Amino acid sequence: MIRNRATLAASSAHEVALDCIEAAIDAAAPDVATRSAVSREGETLTIGETTYDLDSYSDVVVVGGGKAAGGVTRALESILGDRLSGGHVVVKQAADTDTVRSSVGDHPLPSDRNVEATTDILETVDDADEDTLVLFVLTGGASALLSAPAGELTLEALQTTTDRLLSGGVAIEEINAVRKHLSDLKGGQIARRAAPATVAGLLLSDVVGNDRSTIGSGPSVPDETTYEDALAVFDRYDLTPPPAVRKHLEAGRDGKIPETPFPDDPAFDRVRNYLVGDNATALEAAAVVARDAGYDPLVLTSRLRGEAREVAKPLVAIAEEATSTGTPVEPPAVLLAGGETTVTVTGDGGQGGPNQEFVRSGALDHGGDAVIAAVDTDGEDGSSVVAGAIADATVIDDRERAREALLANDAGSYLSAVGATVETGPTGTNVNDVAVLVVPDSTE
């Protein structure tokens, strides 16, 4: 899976970190996650603890989108066979689907082809009736891949808004609160359009804490945010939306545009949403690998968030404490954490992403011999073409230059130059970031 593994495996500790990364990504594979949650026996389809009588439906369709939507859809095609009528999903990489049409879209900014494919999906949902079972697939990346500008908004306005939010260090929950109110699909609106059909949402979470209304901006989940909340995001981060976006949000705040559906909306009477995989799934698999390698694993959290360069510091401090005192875990040990860190861009077009900044900051701050690794499970760290990085403190040969690179959001250039970036290519899944700190035995 890791294309440049031979270059990165500089020590046994590096090898363990790489093994943990591969296990984490494997465990989050969409087909594996889907088959753990969905099964069929005869005409009974089971999702989680709920059963659906396929004889009760004249049509069963799959719609949705996300980076892992292709894998989920292929698993559903295999499970449902000829009971599947069709459908349409939007993916980032070409997916070899059969009955369900798959369209390649763009991420992280929406594009014309995203809008075109989403329009077709909405038409499929609009045609659904009470005899239709809609399996709505939603995975990381769907907020951009499923794009349906609301009202008179243009695609350009959505692109500009998304770009400003992503580069402004805005938390994903707040970004999605805005997206929901600029869309004809997000924030529970797919449920509103599908009614009176039965809808089963299959969600692979890329959101810290697994808030289902935030995953993919919650098209099939009730929305408790408002137009007022969306406007407040721009004020809170001192960001300026395009004039058309502000006008639209203010119209919604003033009651001139209907709100997204709240939890008591009857649109959700025949809707259930199921979580089929998340960051914890990946961390648990990494822990098993660490234990098998003779290390004591400790999962610290699956809820990392905040500025990547700052989040790294307390984690390396824990590694140092483990080396010095044997708490909270006795070396040799592996510390595991996951979540979604952010980067506030202040530099002039540097290279890298949150995971590379995490590793760079951790190596710069670390006073021990731990190996620090962090990757985005989708294989793309921010807008870069690498998954993340792996390093120890020895990569810092010039501390002043290292600090300057970090401040310029150019951690990627330095890490690439020293051969520390992790290359996987697109993995087909997305359950946030995974950080691995391998703390060797101090007696070695």
Quick summary:
Pfam families: DUF4147, MOFRL. With 444 residues, the chain is α/β, with parallel strands linked by helices.
Main attributes?
single chain; 444 residues; alpha/beta; glycerate kinase, domain 1; Rossmann fold; 2 domains; six-stranded parallel sheet; six-stranded mixed sheet; transferase
Task: Provide an overview of this structure.
Its EC number is 1.1.1.81. Keywords: Kinase, Oxidoreductase, Plasmid, Pyruvate, Transferase. InterPro entries: GK-like_C_sf, GK_N_sf, MOFRL, MOFRL_assoc_dom, MOFRL_protein. By secondary structure, the chain is of the alpha/beta class. It has two domains: 5-26 and 280-439, 3-Layer(aba) Sandwich (glycerate kinase, domain 1), CATH 3.40.1480.10; 29-278, 3-Layer(aba) Sandwich (Rossmann fold). The chain is built from 16 helices and 15 strands. The protein has helices at residues 5-8, 12-27, 30-37, 69-80, 112-126, 142-145, 155-167, 172-180, 189-194, 227-236, 243-253, 279-292, 308-325, 354-365, 399-407, 411-417; strands at 38-41, 44-47, 50-53, 59-65, 86-91, 101-104, 132-138, 198-204, 271-277, 296-307, 333-342, 371-376, 388-391, 421-422, 433-439. It has a six-stranded parallel beta sheet, with helices on both faces. Helix 4 (69-80) links the parallel strand 4 (59-65) and strand 5. Helix 10 crosses helix 11 (243-253), helix 13 (308-325) crosses helix 14 (354-365) and helix 14 (354-365) packs antiparallel against helix 15. The longest helix has 18 residues, at 308-325. It is globular. The model has no long low-confidence stretch (mean pLDDT 94).
